[in-house]
Amino acid sequence: MKLHIAKDATDLSMQAAVWIASIIKQTLEKQDRFTIALSGGSTPQKLHNLLSGYPYKEEIDWSRLHIFWGDERAVPFEDERNNAKMAFDTLLDNVGVPMAQIHLMRTDISPEESAAEYETILQKYFDKSGPSFDLVLLGMGDDGHTLSLFPGQPVVHEASAWVHSFFLAAQNMYRITLTAPIVNRSAHVAFLTAG
Question: Taking the model in full, what pTM does it have?
Answer without folding.
Answer: 0.94
